[in-house]
Structure formats: C-alpha cells, structure tokens
Amino acid sequence: MPTISLKGHLMPQSPIRKLVPFAEKAKKRGVKVYHLNIGQPDIKTPQVALDAVKNNNIEILAYSRSEGSETYREKIAAHYKKYHINVSSGDILVTTGGSEALSFTLSSIADTGDEIIIPEPFYANYNGFSVASGLKIVPVTSKIDTNFDLPPIIEFEKLITHKTKAILICNPGNPTGYLYTKEEIQTLARLVKKHDLFLIADEVYRDFIYDNTEHYSILREKEIKDHAIMIDSVSKKYSMCGARIGCIVSKNKDFMATVLKFAQARLSPPTYAQIASEAALDTPQEYFEKITQEYSERRDTLITELKKIKHVKVAEPKGAFYCIAELPICNADDFAKWLLEEFHYNHETIMIAPASGFYSNSSFGKYQVRIAYVLNQEDIKKAITILKHALHEYRYKNDKITVSVASYDIH
Amino acid sequence: MPTISLKGHLMPQSPIRKLVPFAEKAKKRGVKVYHLNIGQPDIKTPQVALDAVKNNNIEILAYSRSEGSETYREKIAAHYKKYHINVSSGDILVTTGGSEALSFTLSSIADTGDEIIIPEPFYANYNGFSVASGLKIVPVTSKIDTNFDLPPIIEFEKLITHKTKAILICNPGNPTGYLYTKEEIQTLARLVKKHDLFLIADEVYRDFIYDNTEHYSILREKEIKDHAIMIDSVSKKYSMCGARIGCIVSKNKDFMATVLKFAQARLSPPTYAQIASEAALDTPQEYFEKITQEYSERRDTLITELKKIKHVKVAEPKGAFYCIAELPICNADDFAKWLLEEFHYNHETIMIAPASGFYSNSSFGKYQVRIAYVLNQEDIKKAITILKHALHEYRYKNDKITVSVASYDIH
User: Fold this and answer.
1) How would you list the strands of the sheet with B353-354, edge to edge?
2) N or C: which end of chain B has fewer CB within 10 A?
3) Alpha-carbon span B79 to B101, nearest angstrom
C-alpha cells in the first residue's frame, strides 16, 4: 500500500474535534451533550448578514477576486478606523477563515525548519498549521498559577535564534482569555524591530473584552509597520463561524504580494460568505453591547461555578470566551473521552477539549481542559454541575489515582 | 525588514490571474475585455442551488463537520453511482474547492523533496500547490503536434525513483482537453500498483465530454482501491465556481484519516456553499444535456476560427472547456500583457492565459496560450477576430521577430 507522508503522520488531531464521533454516539444513546469543547457561539448571527444572503440576486455563482472584492476590503478598512487601526484596502487580503489567513502567513514567512515563538497554551490549530508548513514552534510557557500572565520579555528574547522568523500572539488569547496590555504590545514591538522578526497577532476575539478594558492592536504601532501582520475573522465577532471568512492585514508590501500568490493558487474566498460578511459590517452597535454583556455574565457564572468545585484551578479570562481549568485528574484526554463514552448524569453529559493539544509539548496541560462559555448561563450551571459529579465518579473509576484526586470531595 | 520565505519567493503567480490588474486598467480606459483567460463559465447556476440558499433558514451560521455534513456526503456517494463509481459517505471528504482537495492530498502523501509525476501541460496551480507543499513535479511532456496524446507509459515508468509518491492526472485535462481512454487508465493503474504509488485524478471536468465519448474514472479500477484518490468540485459542473466546494474521494482509510486531520485544522468548509452544493445534486438532467451541447458547439466554433488564422496551431480538445493554441509570437507572456495594455480593436480586446505557467519548465509553452471557451459562440467569434488582428499588429510592433512571424499573413 502506498504510504502517508511524515507530515501527515505528525499532523495532530484537533483536540477540539477529535472527540466528535464519541459525542455523536452518546447522542445516539439518548444522552444530551453540552458542548463546552468548541468556540461555536449560540448567539444569533446579525439579521443584516442573514438577510443579505437571502436577498442575493446571483445568477452565476462566480469566482471573486483572489484577494477579496474591492468594495468589501474598502469597507473593512473603514471599519478598522473605529479601533484606531489605519489601513487601506490594499493592506487587506480576504481569506477563507482565519485558518487560511494563518496558513498563508506562515507559508509566506517561513520555510521548513524555521522557528516561530508562541506563548503557550495557544490555539491548538497553531500546531496543525505549523506541521503543515514544516515550522517548529518554540513555546514560551505561561502558567495557570499566575493567571497565564505573559512571561517576561527576556524569556522571549532568550529563544531567538537565526532560525526565528516571527513571534505569534493571540490577543485576547484562545484558550486563556489573556489580554495583552498596550505596554506589552509596545515591548514586543521593540523586540521584533530589534531582531527583524515578524509580529503576528491573531486578533479574532478583539470585540470580546470585559471589565471595561480596551484592546490594543499591533497595527497601532507605526514603528513596526513592516513587521506587523494581523489575522482577523468574522467567525466569532458576528457568530458566523460557518461563513469561513477572515483576512490578513499588513502594510508590508512584499509580504502582501507573496500572500496574494498563495491566494491566487486557491482562486478565491467563498462568494456567499463574502456577501454575508460585507453586510455584517452594518450590524448595529447595540448587537455587540448586548453580546459583551452576555459573555461577561457567562464568564462570571462559569468561573464562580468552577471555583466551587474543590481542587479545580481556573484562570480568570479578560477576553475571548474560553478558560483553561485544571482538574484533579491524571489524564484530561482520557477523562474527556470517558465523559462521552461511559458517563452520564441524568442522561446528560459534557464535551470538553483536553488542553494537551493547546501546548507545544502535549505533556503540559495533561490535567487541564479548555472550556468554551458559549452556552447560556443556565446551561453553563448545568454543565458545571455535571462536571462536578463526573469528577466524583471518575475518581472511583480510575485506578491510577493521584493524591489530589484521592483527597477530592464532592461536597 | 523581515524577509519572505524561500517558498514564498518560489510560489508562482497564477498565469490565469496575474494579468487581472492590466485587464482592470483596460476596462477603465473604456476597452471591452473578452475573458478567455479563466474557466469561469457564463452558464447560469442551477436554479435549485440558488433557491436553496435564498430559502435557507439559518439563524446561527455555525461551523459544519470538518469532513462535510453526513447528508451531503451520502448524497454525493449516491450521485456517483450514475458514473459507475461505487463509494460510501465515509470515502468522501468535503473541501473548500478542488484547490483545497489537492493541497490536502499532496500534504498527506508527500514530504519536502518528494516527487510527483504529472503529464504536462497541466493545470497551472499544480505548480503552486507543489511549491506550497515542498514537492517536486516531474513532468511527462505531451506535444501539441500529437494533439497532446498521453506519452507512452514507458515514459512514466522511466521517471519513477524512490522519491516518487504519486502520478497525478487531470481527466479530462485542463488545459489540453485531453480525455484518457479506459485502456490508458488501466495501464496507469497497473503501473501505480506495481510501484506502490498513489494515482491522483483531478476529475472536475468529468461532465464536459464531447463527441459521444465516455469518461472513465480511476475509481472504477477496483484493483487500485488503496492507490486511487479522486479530486472533484462543484465549480465547473454546476457553474458554481464561487461556492468553493469540492471533495476528496478515496477508499484508502489511512489516507482519509490523514486528510481529516488537515481538514480539522481549518475547521470546516463554508456552510452556505454546502447548502447550494447539496441542492445542486437535484439539478435536472436536461440542464447538463443543454450545457454539453452548448460547449461542444463552442469548441467547434473556437477550433474552426483558430484554424482559419495562418501559423496558429491548435489541438482538438475532447473534454473540459479549454484549448492550447500555439501562436506565431516569441513570447506569449509579453503578448498577453500587450493585448491588455496597448492593443484594442474597435475598443475591444481579449484576455488570454500564457501557457508557460502550465508547464513545469516555463520555457515550454513560450509560444502557447490557454483559451477557455466559456463565452457564447458570437463572443468567441468576435474574440478570435480580435486575436487575428492583434497578431497582425503585434508582428509589426515586435522587433524580436521570428521567422514564422515574419511569414505570417493576416489574410
């Protein structure tokens, strides 16, 4: 039989999606599954976007421009002004989701064996994109005990070699909810300028910021206009994950010309989704105000409920809609699978993403899970109650019990 | 300034799309441009597909399954039965266009430095996908003088090394319109089985077959079920290029499991486009009969008109909707650009794709262009008249004149 590539072997399964078949089997057994595993919001997509697609008058569903339509890119540029981001349509290339934006970016700046520094835990698919591009991720590990605060810049600088091509951050962070301060962005800016690296910021959660804090985009730093690459997406902002529209924004003309070549090879981003995304830019402001309020309350509910469970550690997210929780278990992968395969509490269970896949070294995060707070507060409460009972039952089931689990108490 | 990757430098510009800015400038000058450069049909998308999207009742535009929805894949499997292709939904993975299907396939089977044998001229973006995946294309050159007939199988076998991972064919061929016979497919099947290679067939033009001939899919060869990988797309079949939906079909379970990991990393194919594509499967048969008739007539018109121009060589396509024509010029790239930048005939011009990008070595095809017959017959006639006058004018303009051009006569 012909063989699979090494790259194909190394390609990780998605920790967010690999358990889907088990969830489907649970559902077939009549067990209700609360999805805490995936950043798929339950929020309604803006009506203006849905209507634009329903009212489209396409007769020939044709290719669009490889870089996205001119009108859409102009509107995106205008939209960024609200965030004090000053770019023009020529600095924007529309992609098939933030995923493609990241793939094109990594392929454009790094060759096989090149290195990219990423604070971890990081969005799991960064591992996949890096394997696909042949890159090596060099992690800077942040800790749950210090609320996933950014490690000192000196930690980044120590890791820079002649192979380092970029520093990649996710701001606010998936899976930690970490929000970078203006000062941190400026320090990173000085660092990439000094070492002539790219600074890539995945800012797809820019609008999910709580506690009256503010997001500070890397594109506000004029000194690094040739170094800064911003990744964006409509998926989370407009609850339009299924559109598959994102974009790359950079003022580096060589970089944008290179990205365009990758974009031309795949022809164009999806046409219907661009119609929805362009219309979504007209979403009224109160839509976002309501959502921010809602997520802020969900976060508070989730953190409060998690903290009630003994021996569960949790870092407080300042943005996005995830948190990392450390559980009194030996193996979060096994626990997550067991939740779907064997456990139920009143015919209900939860699906969570084991955190090992959010680290460069999968032995980190062995006790941790990512929880997405994309459900309403009542469901979050139910889900965490299920988690509590599951932890209790798992304790008795599991032979390889740790001291912390042994001392764990359901009450 | 931070530097672009070597891969980014090597990535070719699309010969089909690189001249778009020149075409847009021509249009701004008031020159009408006939697009013979791109396989964007002028045929209306099936109403059933357009209606499905207009009548959708989505409230939350959510992610779909990474491999595409179960119902859609089941319907695709049922649809293939018509072509004597016997597969199940589990053998199918839905992708964001045929482009992504090819990228995932190449990444799953080959590592940097591995080789893939492709008869050339081939679809230009195979060059792009190969550079992106780090592969080396090993071409088997077919010639316009022999109507791009497949070179003898011995030519393929001579090129097989320990680095060879696959043979990739496009059937019917873009850009040549070449249609593989059943016997040729069977010979290739024996070859890949003997050397344990994958056989990848890009069959996106399966429905565009003329002269009452039949298409023979590689998936009909049961002996190579673990070797055969078929690439498909809705783009051409349903005139839905802007949907960006394709699929990978294979019975090799290791391969499909690997492809799924790449698919998970990019989350899901676009949701609206899947709705359209699923509905498109219900397109009535007469839609295709009319289209085949129309394209067959367009092909005849195009070939007849091209043959009227002295010193223009053209191979007769048996399928798809392209042909390669050899023109009495020194440099098709320069000519194609000149057509848009400097030339007009009664305020009209044509856009063509220089064929150099359809070869592994760009010096081949230097005198050739790809012409897509995606316009109605009247427009095709006008476009070829423009070509005739353009060749005449270009002859006087160009100092570096070849003998064949010197002897070229407009009448």
Assistant:
1) B313-314, B322-326, B368-372, B353-354
2) C
3) 19
Q: Which of A308, A314, A331, A333 is nearest to A410 (CA)?
A: A308
Dist. CA A162–CA A113, nearest whole Å: 11
Strand partners, A331: none
| Strand-by-strand arrangement of the A198-202 sheet | A92-95, A246-250, A228-233, A198-202, A164-170, A115-120, A136-141
Q: Are B250 and B23 in contact (CB under 8 A)?
A: no
Q: Does the bond joining A354 to the residue before it have cis omega, within 30 degrees of 0? A: no
CB of B236 less than 8 A from some CB of A: no
B372 Cβ partners below 8 Å, 6+ apart? Answer: B35, B36, B37, B38, B39, B40, B321, B322, B353
Angstrom distance (rounded) from CA B128 to CA B357? 10
ipTM: 0.94
Distance CA B13, CA B17 (A): 8
The C-alpha atoms of residue A293 and residue B104 are separated, in whole angstroms, by: 40
- Rounded distance between C-alpha atoms, residue B310 and residue B360, angstroms: 28
Of residues A152 and B56, more confidence is placed in: B56
Inter-chain touch B165–A56, beta carbons under 8 Å: no
Cβ distance A111 to B273 less than 8 Å, yes or no, reads no
Supply the DSSP string of A6-64, one letter for each residue: HHHHHSPPPTTTTTHHHHHHHHHTT-EEEE-SS----SPPPHHHHHHHHT---SS----
- Are A142 and A315 in contact by the 8 Å Cβ rule? The answer is no
The pLDDT tens digits of the residues spanning B137-195 come to 999 999 999 999 988 888 999 999 999 999 999 999 999 999 999 999 999 999 999 99
Do B279 and B52 meet the contact criterion of CB atoms below 8 Å apart?
yes
Specify the pTM: 0.94
Contact A352, A370 (CB under 8 A): yes
Model confidence pLDDT, tens digit, residues B249-301: 999 999 999 999 999 999 999 999 999 999 999 999 999 999 999 999 999 99
Identity of the residue in B38, B59, B110 whose CB atom sits nearest the CB atom of A44: B59
Interfacial B residues in 366-395 facing A (CB < 8 Å)? none
Tokens of A63: 């290719």
Work out whether strand A32-35 and strand A136-141 pair parallel, antiparallel, or are unpaired. Answer: unpaired
